[in-house]
Each structure stands twice: as C-alpha cells, then as structure tokens.
C-alpha cells in the first residue's frame, strides 16, 4: 500500500496519470442498491456459514472489517454511511438525545422531527437534487422530511413488514422507473437476536444468521428474476457489531453518585450525563467510579472518537469497556450490546459488493465506514457533499481503477523511467552548463582559461 501510494504520488507529480475515468452518460449509469443487515458483526463471517453471501462476494468484493463511527449505535452509523460524516458532524449522536438549546428530545422510537437530521444531507436527497430518483425501504431517516425533502418511493417505518415485501416493492420501483439510481433497504436482524441472546449463544445465532443468509439468497434470486442482477451495483453491509454482556459485568452509577445529583440522557454503554450541581464534583466521583468505565468532560473526549463538537453532546460522557453495562441501580437489561469504542473489532461490521463497477473475487482487509459515501457518489456520478471519507481508500475495489500488482508493476516501470529520464536530462543539462555558462564553470574550476576551445 505504502509503496504503491508513493509511486502514485511520484506519477502524479510527474504530470502523468494511470487511470482514465470512464465518461458515462447519465442514463447508462447503473443504479446502486445499498442493503444493511443491522448488527452484523464482522467475525460472524468466520464463525458461521453463509453460502448465499459467499456466492455474492465470490463474484465481487469482500471487505472483512469496516471501522465504523463512535458511538457504535444504529442511527449514528446508518447516518454516517449515507453522509460520510462522523457523528459530531452529522448530529445523529446516539439512540436517545437531548438538545439543550431547543430543549427537544430524540429517541429512535420517535425520530420523525427533521430537526435532528438537518445538520447533514443524506445521499438520497442529493440524488434527487441531481435529477434522479431514490427509493427506500426503511433505512433510518428515509421516511423523514430531511432538508425539506420527501421521497416518493419510500415506506413509513414498520418492523412487521417482511423482508420479501420490502425488497419486492423496491425492485418494482427500480424496474418501473429507470430514473431510480439509488435504492436502500434495511433489515433488523441479526441485531435483534444479538441483543436478546448475546452473540456467544451459538445455537440462537446460527438460527438467525441462517435466516439472514436466506434473505441474501432471496435478494440474489429476486434481482436475477427482475433482470437487475449483474446490471446494477449492490452493496451489503451493516452499522455495527455486537458484544457479549453478563450480569457479572454491571457498573452501577448510584453506587458512585447520588441519584438526585444528575440527569441521564442516554445510559449504556455510552452514558450522557447532565450534572445538576457543578460539573467537576460529579466528574471526579464518576472518574473513580469503576475500573471498567472511563469518564470524560465534554471538552476532553479524545479527538479520535470525533465526539465533541456538537451541542447535543452532554457535559459528561461515560464509556464502558467492551461487554460492560452501565445501569443506574438496576439489573442487566440485555445479553448483547453495542455502542462501545469504535476501535474494538467486535463493534465492526463487514461490507460486500457486487456489480459491474466492482472487481470480481477481490478482498480488502478494511476501510472506514465514512469512505463508503464518496464511493457511492462516484458510482452514481454525483458530486459528494463535504464529508470525512476518502475515495482514495476505496478505489481499489473498482474494476475501472488501476490498482494492485499490474498497477504496481506499471508504476515501477514508469517510476524508473521517470527517474532515469530525469537523471539523464539533469546530467546533460549539467554538461551543457559546464561548457556554456562561464560563471558556473568558474565556480568549479579555478584556473578556467578564457580561451576554452569548447566555447567556439
Ligand atoms: C415525538 O416527538 C415530537 C417532536 O419532537 C413531540 O412533539 C411528540 O410529543 C413526540 N411523541 C411522542 C409519542 O413521544
Ligand atoms: C420547505 O418547503 C415548503 C413548501 O415547498 C416551503 O414553503 C418552505 O419554505 C420550505 N422550507 C425550507 C426551510 O426550505
Ligand atoms: C408493497 O407493494 C404492494 C403492491 O403494490 C402493496 O400492496 C403494499 O402495500 C406495498 N407494501 C408497503 C408496505 O407499502
Ligand atoms: C441460548 O438461548 C436459548 C434461548 O434463550 C437458551 O435456551 C440457551 O440456553 C442459550 N444457550 C447458551 C449457550 O447460552
Ligand atoms: C439467474 O437465473 C438464470 C435462469 O433462471 C439461472 O440460470 C442463473 O443461474 C441465475 N443466476 C443466479 C446468480 O442465481
Ligand atoms: C457544565 O459543563 C457544560 C459544558 O460541557 C457547561 O455548559 C455548563 O454550564 C457546566 N455547568 C456548570 C454548572 O458549570
Ligand atoms: C438500589 O438497589 C438496592 C439493592 O439492590 C436497593 O436497596 C435500593 O433501594 C435501590 N435504590 C434505588 C434508588 O432504586
Ligand atoms: C468532517 O467533515 C466536516 C464537513 O466537511 C468538517 O466540518 C469536519 O471538520 C470534518 N471532521 C474532521 C475530523 O476532519
Ligand atoms: Zn444497529
């Protein structure tokens, strides 16, 4: 990676470029379908069997692990995937939020106030502002009037609508209306079972992951039947992973601070605390509360979490260690949870892609989930909004981008040629100057004679 990066830099600096972007008219840009299976932890792929998913990526791309954003919760990460922004920049910071300026409350059960979404512009709004259409089946936010924009092809969120119906209506919209260039589909599993049984309950996880894989089989079949398979680009990914919790791993806030000294906005595994007295007293008590919980004053949240610059972040943030649960005084609420530090592998999802734009049988170890947004904009052919992702991190997944061994070999040859040419030119130049430029010659040779024969 580093060598090829260096070579690219060299080539670009030399005014050459290896990749010539294909110019496509709007109409033959293939549509893009983005699918999320909530809570699909990356290493489920190593521990369970997925015959249909394997069929999907064996003919496409597999990214083993995505580094997602903090907090590793559903809404923050689904919004990062479609905006390319960290949570502090898109404003969807947690499952439960409070805005101290407007005094409004947010919860995922009541998410329809555009106020919470309007700090960013999701890709489906940009797609429609570019004259195309977008279609959506329950992806978080797609039924909200974000940036004053309502989708024509969308569902109101209803967890009871089966997978087959969500997908069936989506493919109907896509085949009926060729201006649909972006479609998105959301499914609640394996998140729901991961919370209920814990990711280490292999009996239950085997069951639900087989179901998820069958859905992927149905997806391939349905796309094939409607003539979309192989014609459109499809990305299957997720928002976060899942960690095993246990009743032995509880952190009780009321053991450390008095219940009437604080308000809790969100509780676990990342707590948002508003002290009712002064911040520093409560902070001191919380910072020595438990070995498996870190406490941060808002301004001291580590930069790498990108979780500081937003009104909706409360004065004190508590972060539990992997597998630990924060409660006020209660018992363990669920056997599996997510939301923890986004550097933990257990919090990472995977990504797989298939379609004309993608390489076949290609594997990548990882990229950032915010990098997906510039990739999707590239695939649809629209200009991305300002974002935190990088197309350079993901371009190697694409068939039209020169990458890998061939590019490296070509890069090395061109690089060597450039170096040789440069040296030859320099050498000739110096020789020439040696002969023609007297001041230079004088510097080098003290007894330079005026009657130098070469001057003639
Ligand atoms: C949902 O949120 C809206 C706007 O924030 C609020 O007016 C309404 O009362 C909430 N509804 C429920 C059921 O909590
Ligand atoms: C939203 O759209 C409505 C009707 O199209 C318009 O009256 C209103 O001014 C718009 N609001 C904003 C904030 O753009
Ligand atoms: C899906 O499409 C069918 C047929 O057009 C329609 O009857 C059904 O209501 C749609 N489902 C939803 C949830 O809108
Ligand atoms: C998995 O969950 C089922 C259903 O709750 C339970 O009966 C079983 O004992 C669990 N297995 C393990 C290994 O925890
Ligand atoms: C698509 O359908 C055709 C005809 O039924 C079948 O031969 C082919 O194997 C299917 N392709 C996939 C990927 O399922
Ligand atoms: C606590 O900290 C927040 C900033 O994080 C600040 O707005 C608030 O005024 C502080 N409260 C007190 C009582 O100092
Ligand atoms: C917290 O739990 C303890 C023992 O489990 C109980 O005695 C106490 O009343 C509880 N406190 C609150 C505020 O619920
Ligand atoms: C993320 O992108 C937004 C929009 O361009 C920008 O305001 C913000 O500073 C970026 N964050 C970082 C950490 O670069
Ligand atoms: Zn989720």
From TrEMBL:
- Name the chemical reaction catalysed here: P(1),P(3)-bis(5'-adenosyl) triphosphate + H2O = AMP + ADP + 2 H(+)
A single cellular component GO annotation: plasma membrane
State which residue ranges cross the membrane.
406-429
Membrane protein topology class: Single-pass type I membrane protein
Q: Which domain of life is it from?
A: Eukaryota
| Entry cofactors | Zn(2+)
Alphabetical list of InterPro entries matching this protein:
Alkaline_phosphatase_core_sf (IPR017850), Phosphodiest/P_Trfase (IPR002591)
Q: Which Pfam families does the record associate with it?
A: Phosphodiest
The record's subcellular location field reads:
Cell membrane
EC top class named in words: hydrolase
Q: Which GO terms describe its molecular function?
A: bis(5'-adenosyl)-triphosphatase activity; metal ion binding
Tell me which EC number(s) this protein carries: 3.6.1.29
Statement: the UniProt record of this protein carries the keyword Endoplasmic reticulum = no
User: What Gene Ontology terms for biological process does this UniProt record contain?
Assistant: blood coagulation
According to the UniProt entry, where is the signal peptide?
1-19
The UniProt keyword set, sorted, is: Blood coagulation, Cell membrane, Disulfide bond, Glycoprotein, Hemostasis, Hydrolase, Membrane, Metal-binding, Signal, Transmembrane, Transmembrane helix, Zinc
Q: What does this protein do?
A: Hydrolyzes extracellular Ap3A into AMP and ADP, and Ap4A into AMP and ATP. Ap3A and Ap4A are diadenosine polyphosphates thought to induce proliferation of vascular smooth muscle cells. Acts as a procoagulant, mediating platelet aggregation at the site of nascent thrombus via release of ADP from Ap3A and activation of ADP receptors.
Provide the family line: Belongs to the nucleotide pyrophosphatase/phosphodiesterase family.
PANTHER family for the chain: BIS(5'-ADENOSYL)-TRIPHOSPHATASE ENPP4, ECTONUCLEOTIDE PYROPHOSPHATASE/PHOSPHODIESTERASE
- Name of the protein this chain belongs to: bis(5'-adenosyl)-triphosphatase
Organism, scientific name:
Anabarilius grahami
């Amino acid at each position: 990676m580093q060598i090829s990066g260096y070579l690219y830099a060299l080539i670009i600096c030399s005014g050459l470029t290896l990749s010539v972007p294909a110019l496509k008219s709007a109409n033959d840009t293939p549509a893009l379908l983005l699918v999320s299976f909530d809570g699909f932890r990356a290493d489920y792929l190593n521990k369970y069997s997925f015959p249909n998913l394997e069929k999907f990526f064996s003919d496409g791309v597999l990214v083993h692990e995505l580094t997602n954003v903090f907090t590793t919760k559903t809404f923050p990460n689904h919004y990062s995937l479609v905006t390319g922004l960290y949570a502090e920049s898109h404003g969807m910071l947690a499952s439960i939020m409070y805005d101290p300026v407007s005094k409004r409350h947010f919860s995922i059960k009541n998410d329809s106030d555009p106020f919470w979404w309007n700090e960013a512009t999701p890709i489906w709004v940009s797609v429609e502002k570019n004259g195309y259409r977008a279609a959506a089946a329950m992806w978080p936010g797609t039924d909200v009037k974000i940036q004053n924009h309502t989708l024509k092809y969308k569902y109101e969120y209803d967890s009871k609508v089966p997978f087959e119906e969500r997908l069936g209506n989506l493919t109907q919209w896509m085949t009926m209306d060729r201006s649909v260039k972006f479609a998105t589909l959301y499914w609640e599993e394996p998140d729901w079972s991961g919370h209920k049984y814990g990711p280490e309950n292999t009996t239950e996880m085997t069951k639900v992951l087989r179901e998820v894989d069958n859905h992927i089989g149905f997806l391939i079949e349905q796309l094939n039947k409607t003539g979309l398979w192989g014609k459109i680009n499809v990305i299957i990914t997720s928002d976060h992973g899942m960690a095993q919790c246990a009743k032995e791993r509880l952190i009780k806030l009321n053991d450390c601070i008095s219940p009437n000294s604080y308000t809790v906005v969100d509780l676990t595994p990342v707590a948002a605390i508003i002290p009712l007295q002064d911040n520093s007293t409560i902070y001191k008590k919380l910072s020595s509360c438990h070995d498996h919980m870190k406490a941060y004053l808002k301004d001291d949240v580590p930069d790498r979490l990108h979780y500081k610059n937003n009104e909706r972040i409360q004065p004190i943030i508590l972060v539990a260690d992997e597998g630990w649960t924060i409660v006020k005084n209660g018992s363990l609420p669920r056997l599996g949870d997510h939301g923890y530090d986004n550097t933990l592998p257990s919090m990472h999802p995977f990504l797989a892609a298939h379609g004309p734009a993608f390489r076949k049988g290609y594997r990548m170890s990882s990229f950032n989930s915010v990098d997906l947004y510039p990739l999707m904009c590239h695939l649809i052919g629209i200009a991305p909004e300002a974002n935190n992702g990088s197309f350079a991190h993901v371009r190697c997944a694409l068939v039209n981008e020169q990458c890998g061994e061939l590019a490296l070999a070509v890069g090395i040859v061109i690089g060597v040629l450039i170096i040789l040419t440069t040296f030859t030119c320099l050498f000739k130049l110096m020789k020439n100057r040696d002969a023609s430029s007297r001041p230079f010659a004088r510097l080098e040779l003290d007894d330079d004679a005026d009657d130098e024969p070469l001057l003639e």
